[in-house]
Design goal:
Blueprint (H helix, E strand, L loop, with lengths): L5 H11 L5 E3 L5 E3 L4 E3 L9 H10 L7 H5 L23 E7 L6 E6 L5 E5 L9 E3 L2
Antiparallel strand pairs: 1-2, 2-3, 3-7, 4-5, 5-6
């Protein structure tokens, strides 16, 4: 395995914190220039995983993978752990991802935006949703 240099880690962290990383779009979505993903509005209501997938599809998006959604967490903030100027509708609660738990049929990963934790829950439980799509 290749050892990652400290300078490479610092460069990556600098990219994550770049103030030009995000751009608000005219349709209300937010473009992440680093990851090439656009983020939609937060759902107003909680819903089970299958309904969350449908919700995203109606907005012409998808459920984000766990690492994609976690990339929005700002660990210098809490309640919610995100930049509220970019994502003002984020609840201090947990959000579904499209990443299923390996070996855990009926479970999927989630990201909490109270403190930025990653956990999992049964797909029948109710969570919020932030859809994403490939950058246009």
């Amino acid at each position: 395995m290749k050892k990652v240099k400290k300078s490479e880690v610092n460069q990556f962290l600098k990219l994550l914190r770049d103030p030009n990383r995000f751009k608000k779009l005219d349709d209300g979505w937010v473009r992440d220039n680093l990851c090439g993903i656009e983020w939609g509005p937060s759902s107003e209501e909680r819903m089970p995983w299958a309904k969350a997938k449908d919700y995203c599809a109606k907005l012409k998006g998808r459920l984000p993978e766990v690492n994609e959604l976690q990339s929005l967490v700002d660990y210098s903030k809490h309640d919610p752990a995100i930049d509220k100027s970019l994502f003002p509708d984020t609840k201090s609660s947990w959000y579904w991802t499209g990443t299923k738990v390996a070996g855990g049929f009926g479970y999927a990963w989630l990201v909490t935006f109270d403190y930025g934790d990653v956990a999992n829950s049964g797909k029948g439980d109710d969570g919020y949703v932030r859809p994403c799509r490939a950058s246009q």
